[in-house]
């Protein structure tokens, strides 16, 4: 008996991530060099790994409370206070989640119902829209391609006026896929717009510690606290992707609602990982600085190699991605362009169309890869582009 027709019909709108699908496809190519996924090539700091081992040996294998270990929430509260001037009560305003991904899921599924609208600057990380669709809501993309991928207050206000059903605005900065981030004045200006409307901001700040502007990361929660849900985690800052530790920071009136969804999704984050996270935030507050220094070197090298080939790049000030426009004289179908490149030169990037309609004609490179891999990839990209131009 076929019972698939009994499933949520909104699942028909959802596909497996285009990033993962393309990565899996090119992974079949022998000898492929991949600058595809957003996973640091660094290992977690040794002191964090030691804390995880110690937790295992201490038999820390039982459930924690749904919100996570209080000690972890306390050090997370201290971390964002010191780093970003945010004040959240560890007992009532912080939830420990299974990575930032579950933080996104729990937040969106707690808020949205059918007919709601969600505004997002685009191109953007593709992990939001499927959840929005699953809830029966609609995502409205704000095209930032002609503005250096920067969302302005005017663009945001115009979108809010045009879409009065908007319930949520999603911000992700530093951004995946563009690496663009915002300074204090820019964030305050966006917050001033937000405060005029009855909307919730979900601010995905998972790359906050990978900011290359020379200034501190500024959270929009500093200016619109009551309307903001801040999402963060340790995957990018401490190279702890597999530990799956994320955080939700929000006013108590919001966290007491989100925890209802969170508890039925996961009960609680993994206990051993939480003990490792305590060590990361308590004694590794600046662990990301070591990685950030290397990422800047890699970023600048890639730009120095791609720009002369005709790729148009908005210099990223955070995260670890290059989002580059394919030169006009080359194949503008980003999927076909990169599949051909991977087949001919055994190098893989991610098609820009994976990040929505406004990513078409772009490619995304992750420079969370070794310099040796990056240099070889650039040699092969140069050869590929020259080959194609020679064939023209």
From TrEMBL:
Gene Ontology MF: a single term: transaminase activity
Domain Aminotransferase class I/classII large per the UniProt entry, residue ranges: 32-380
Enzyme Commission code(s) on record: 2.6.1.-
Cofactor: pyridoxal 5'-phosphate
CDD domains in alphabetical order: AAT_like
Pfam families with a match to the protein in the record: Aminotran_1_2 (PF00155)
Enzyme class: transferase
InterPro entries: Aminotransferase_I/II_large, AspAT/PAT-like, NHTrfase_class1_PyrdxlP-BS, PyrdxlP-dep_Trfase, PyrdxlP-dep_Trfase_major, PyrdxlP-dep_Trfase_small
One GO BP annotation of this record: amino acid metabolic process
Record keywords: Aminotransferase, Pyridoxal phosphate, Transferase
Record Gene3D superfamilies: Aspartate Aminotransferase, domain 1, Type I PLP-dependent aspartate aminotransferase-like (Major domain)
Similarity section: Belongs to the class-I pyridoxal-phosphate-dependent aminotransferase family.
Protein name from the UniProt record: Aminotransferase
Organism: Pseudolactococcus plantarum
């Amino acid at each position: 008996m076929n019972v698939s027709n009994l499933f949520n019909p909104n699942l028909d709108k959802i596909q497996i991530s285009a990033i993962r699908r393309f990565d899996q496809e090119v992974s079949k190519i022998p000898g492929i060099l991949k600058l595809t996924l957003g996973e640091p090539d660094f290992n977690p700091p040794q002191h964090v790994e030691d804390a995880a081992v110690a937790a295992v040996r201490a038999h820390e294998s039982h459930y924690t409370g749904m919100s996570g270990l209080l000690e972890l929430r306390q050090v997370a509260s201290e971390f964002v206070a010191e780093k970003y001037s945010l004040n959240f009560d560890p007992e009532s305003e912080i939830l420990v989640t299974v990575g930032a991904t579950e933080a996104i899921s729990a937040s969106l599924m707690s808020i949205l119902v059918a007919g709601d609208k969600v505004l997002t600057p685009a191109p953007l990380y593709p992990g939001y829209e499927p959840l929005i669709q699953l809830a029966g809501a609609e995502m409205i993309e704000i095209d930032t391609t002609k503005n250096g991928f920067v969302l302005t207050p005017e663009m945001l206000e115009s979108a809010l006026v045009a879409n009065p059903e908007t319930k949520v605005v999603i911000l992700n900065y530093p951004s995946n896929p563009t690496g663009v981030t915002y300074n204090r004045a820019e964030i305050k200006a966006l917050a001033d717009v937000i405060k005029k409307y009855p909307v919730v901001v979900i601010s995905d700040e998972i790359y906050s510690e990978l900011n290359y502007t020379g200034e501190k990361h500024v959270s929009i929660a500093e200016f619109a606290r009551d309307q903001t849900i801040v999402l963060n985690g340790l995957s990018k800052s401490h190279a702890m992707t597999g530990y799956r530790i994320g955080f939700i920071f929000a006013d108590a009136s919001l966290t007491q609602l989100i925890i209802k969804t969170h508890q039925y999704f996961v009960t609680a984050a993994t206990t051993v990982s939480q003990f490792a996270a305590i060590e990361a935030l308590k004694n590794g507050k600046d662990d990301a600085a070591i990685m950030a220094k290397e990422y800047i070197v890699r970023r600048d090298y890639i730009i120095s190699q791609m720009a002369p080939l005709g790729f148009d790049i908005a210099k990223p000030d955070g995260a670890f991605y290059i989002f580059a426009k394919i030169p006009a004289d080359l194949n503008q179908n980003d999927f076909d362009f990169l599949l051909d490149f991977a087949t001919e030169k055994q190098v893989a990037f991610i098609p820009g169309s994976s990040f929505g309609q406004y990513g078409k004609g772009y490619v995304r490179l992750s420079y969370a890869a070794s310099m040796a891999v990056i240099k070889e990839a650039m040699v092969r990209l140069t050869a590929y582009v020259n080959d194609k131009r020679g064939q023209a």
